[in-house]
Amino acid sequence: WTPYLEIPDVSVLAERLPSVPEEAARLRSLVEGYEGTPLARGQLLYPGRQLRLTRWPRPDAPLVQLEGGSAATNALLADQCVLSPGPIWVFRIRDELRANEVRGKFLRPGEHYILLAREALAELPSWIAPTNGSSMQGAHAYSANAPLVFNTADETSLEALGLGAVTDVLIRPAALPPASWDGEGAADWLAGEQPILAISSSRAVAKGIITLNGVPHLIPWPASEREVFLELSDLDVGSHQVGVSLFSDVINRPVAAGSLQIVIRSPPVRLPAGSFGEGLMIMASPAHPTLSELWDGRAVLEVRGPQGVEIELEAALADGSSRSVRHRTNARLPIEATQWGRHTSELHEDEDLLSFYDSAESCIITVRHPRLGAVTLRAEREFAPLRWIAGRRGGAPQLRLLNNSESAATVSIFEFAHPDRQIPVELNEVSEITWPAGGLVVAEAGTASASNVLPPRIRHPTDLESLNVRGLTPGPRTSGEVRRLLGISASWATASLPADPFAATGSLHVQQAIAGHIAALIGGGRWAALERRASDFDELRYSEVQHAVGDLRQHHVLAASLLRDVEAMLALTPQQRSMRLMRLLDTHTPNAGHGRGRFPLAQFALQLASDPASLAATSESELDLALQLLLVSTIVIRVARLLVLEVHALIEHDTGGIYRGWSWG
Amino acid sequence: MGVRRIDPDVAMRHAVKSLDLDPDRFALESPEVLAAAVRRTASFLCPTTPGALTRSVSETVSRLGGSVDVAEDVASMVESLASYGDLLELAIDDGTRTRRQLFLGPPAYVSVRPDCALLVGIRPDGAALVSDEVLSLVEPDRHTRRVSLGADAAIADLLAAEGLIEMHVDHWLGAPRRTSAEAVVQFYTNYLEAAGPTGPIDGLLVIDPSARVTYYIGRWRPLGPRDTGHFVARRPQAYGANAWCFADVRAGEVQRLIDLPIEDSLARPSDEAWRLQAALDVRAGRPQEFRVRVDGATRIIDVFSPVPSWLRRRIDVVGTDMSPGMGALFSYAVPMDALLDEISYLEDSMWLAQSQGGSDSGE
Q: Which of A2, A227, A373 lies closest to B108 in CB terms?
């Protein structure tokens, strides 16, 4: 048996607490007990997502958190997204595939259960025994095959375990199937529906007292009936508790009692992108991507559906009027998030889309199959007080500023050659700028800003040199300087890209140069020399690389082990490679200090070495802690950078990150 | 907020009405109400297994006002809806293994005539397939839902405005290309011969090619030591229902085995298995059979072996499901003027032979 956790859909909070779904849309989430990579941005906005737990959640850890989320949102999630209280959890086996949790923690004669207990259980009745071959960290699993009749000893044992027995009463939804029913003590209906319950008993019953949220109602029970039906009306959205006490004619205390928890919930908002119950589903990260996020590859899509089935994938750009341009291609299901970059590249190669993109207001992605139907995802261009519109004038790339703010705008450019050197510029009378060398153009007006990468004018092959980075302003070897470089990297990474592919190339060069510069700054003189000499390490001798990683023999062994492992790491996600790197560091340099603190330093170093901008959401305190550790334990950044460049060199196709194989999602 | 005791009859009427059906026309146990209950439950429960869906519906509908256990009828309705396309049986990889589960069919319509369409599909979370306005035009009939308008009405526009996609009738039927039984056997044999060797498989059941073709249940048996040849079979799995497969057997031992479906990854495994068995039976000179009976102005076709869902869907268009006739596994009524086409379709698509005893082809 393997526990699965259905994670909450926080989109239902959009009206009452809009900040929660907003943060969930743009941040990754961490789920206690789930040891895969953090869930991609926006994954808490889909109802019904189930995760396989590899470890039973710890009682003192929040069940769901947002990585880098605000304290208020994470406190709310910690408070509201909780397991039912332990230390024992009861799961009733419904069929060969599924056992549902019985939140009321009671057992019924003749039924089969799985019990999970925080601590090993002692003095159990004979019908409760440890399960075979099922074990997991953090919990002990038991199988309980309840006897057809509970004797006093059974009931005492259950009571000692903190569990209950229900013997003579059955409360179930009747007539209209509920939205969910755990088979025992909890059922959900949708707002506006009137639940009908059937109550049956094996005892002779004369009357019943039904409490609804603590308010008692006396219900007559005809002598001839074994089952009566109750209609519950006007239940508000929320949780309601129904208690049932049945009385005979002769005994003045209940002969049977039970309870049912009812939840009335609003119907979820239906998404044209599909749901887990449908044959096709598009999932986006972040959840509601903008047009530019989708176009620039900062948003990735995942298409779920039956393995190997060929679907039609259509991207349609539309402007404010009725003009649209479409691109269609075929693909096989499922499309993983890691494969989406290929489709983005394909869109960038479509001349019609390219020329239409800058005037487009929306993009609709449609996945279609003649038998599975069609699902769509719409990405709108975000409204912005300032917006750059790319175009060409006289063959030269240009940007036009649309200023919807009430303030005058100031504009500056950072050329590719010197990406951290700001040059103030003036727009012409129609708010346009052309700049032969191209670069990052930033407009600011009041608190608003907009940035766009302007491609250089290419008239001759030698003009391509303007895309190369000649240098970054030197700075001290301090965490403050690294943070300055992270900020620059983030500015380039978040700037909108026009359809012109030279803009993307230039931006990529800048971000790679910043990653190399940071590695050189932290890694020290010899590593800096290596970074300067080679853009990738293929042309360097093996001994040179080993030597640059560190002076000590253990450093050479570490480098050799890493290079041996690289092939095997190609198929892993960046997060999984972080775990491997951590293990290698622990094995070969256990005293280097990288294990200190709670921050996962290996992953941090790999992000810094492969995509510094991906750390933009990291809190200042964590950033400082990690940078201080790296500045002391410099071996970590050197091996991280070595791993990044090796993977980049060995993977042929991947456009998701600034280095191949390093898209952090 | 209130609680009141109600009579079983009131509860039944409440249930039927809540499922958007008329309690004066449809009883709780009627196929139309069961179909609506399955659709509603599936809208919340999918992806799920047929067993879990059946149990969830049965638990709420059964015993309402009596001792009638509708579990068998519900199971049969789940099967009908999966054949019809309201539910889709798909193989999905959940990261640990590939499992076949039921999913919601896409909300769609299939035009069967310019003025008539079949509605298929289920929207998630209990949402209605069509608005109240169009709902009044929907005529439920067992597991099907039909919308008919006047001859000149634009039914496609009406249903497209409801957000339903048009599913071409050929895509909806999903019938395989017509070919000879020999070609079908050869197609699967090629795959089987290309498969790697298989170890022993406990609990494998095969369709006995020598057993009487008119008694399907009686054809299933375990392998015997003298069995040699190619068999349609089912093998146990660690989780879920037994998997349909095609096995190469020598002296009672499985040598090679391929899981179905092979030809169409969206097909139900049983569909390919049943068609393949029909082809094997033809090659063995013992084709599966059907019979035609007369019932007033209609003709009833009795089939003695299971038919794939694409054939069931065709019947949903041209005929009407009936209670199985004597000894038959499946029966349906067709109008007199469609009989010859239907006979020809059964003979061409599944290579069935008309049994001679007591038949009347209407000729």
A: A373
B288-318, pLDDT tens digit by residue? Answer: 999 999 888 789 999 999 999 999 898 888 8
What percent of chain A stands above pLDDT 70? Answer: 96
Contact B3 A219 (CB under 8 A): yes
Question: Which residue from B minimizes the CA distance to A178?
Answer: B41
Residue A417 and residue A469 in contact, taking contact as beta carbons nearer than 8 Å: yes
Measuring CA to CA, which residue among B65, B179, B171, B56 is closest to residue B110? B171
Are A275 and B171 an interchain contact pair (Cβ–Cβ within 8 Å)?
A: no
Task: Write out chain B in H/E/C secondary structure.
Answer: CEEEEECHHHHHHHHHHHCCCCCCCCCCCCHHHHHHHHHHHHHHHCCECHHHHHHHHHHHHCCCCCCCCCHHHHHHHHHHHHHHCCEEEEEEECCCCEEEEEEECCCEEEEEECCEEEEECCCCCCCCCCCHHHHCCEEEECCEEEEECCCCCCHHHHHHCCCCEECCHHHHHCCCCCCCHHHHHHHHHHHHHHCCECCCCCCCEEECCCCCCCCCHHHEEECCCCCCEEEEEEECCCCCCCEEEEEEEECCEEEEEEECCCCCCCCCHHHHHHHHHHHHHHHCCCCCEEEEEEECCEEEEEECCCCCHHHHHHHHHHCEEECCCCCCCEEEEEEHHHHHHHHHHHHHHCCCEECCCCCCCCC
Please name the residues in contact with A382: beta carbons below 8 A apart, sequence gap of 6 or more: A290, A291, A292
Where residue B360 falls among pLDDT bands split at 50, 70, 90?
A: very low
Name the minimum distance, in Å, from the CA of B49 to any CA of chain A.
9
Rounded distance between C-alpha atoms, residue B131 and residue A9, angstroms? 27
- Tokens 């001994």 locate to A543
Name the residue facing B5 among A94, A177, A230 (closest C-beta): A230
Looking at residue A175, its pLDDT comes to 85
- Number of A/B CB contacts below 8 angstroms equals 185
User: Is the ipTM above a cut-off of 0.85?
Assistant: no
Other CB atoms within a 10 A radius of the CB of residue A9 amount to 18
Mutation for B interface: A200, A229, A262, A309, most B CBs within 10 A: A229
For the beta carbon of residue B333, count every other beta carbon within 10 angstroms. Answer: 17
Q: Distance, in angstroms, between A184 CA and closest chain B CA?
A: 11
B45 in A contact zone (CB under 8 Å): yes
- The pairing of strands A180-181 and A140-145 is unpaired
Cα separation, A283 vs A285, in Å, equals 7
* Nearest-5° Cα angle at A297, A293 to A299: 55
C-alpha A595/C-alpha A593 separation (Å) is 5
CB-closest option in A98, A268, A309 to B265: A309
User: Of how many residues is chain A composed?
Assistant: 665
Residue of A275, A302, A310 for testing the chain B interface, max B β-carbons within 10 Å = A275
> Which residue type is seen at B90?
L
Q: Is B288 on the interface with A (CB under 8 A)?
A: no
The burial of A510, by beta-carbon neighbours within 10 Å (0-12 exposed, 13-18 middle, 19 or more buried), is given as buried
Residues of A in contact with B90 (CB under 8 A): 279, 305-306
For residue A342, the surrounding DSSP H or E stretch is helix A340-348
- CB spacing of B103 vs A277 below 8 angstroms: yes
How much is the mean pLDDT over chain B? 89
**Rounded distance, CA B37 to CA B31, Å?**
10
CB contact under 8 A, B64 and A198: yes
Residue A148's identity, in one-letter code, is L
What token pair was written down for B130?
Answer: 């069509």
Contacts A212 to B, Cβ<8 Å: 1-3
Q: What is the DSSP letter of A46?
A: S
Closest-approach residue (CA) in chain B for A4: B94
- Rg (C-alpha) for chain A, rounded Å, is 31
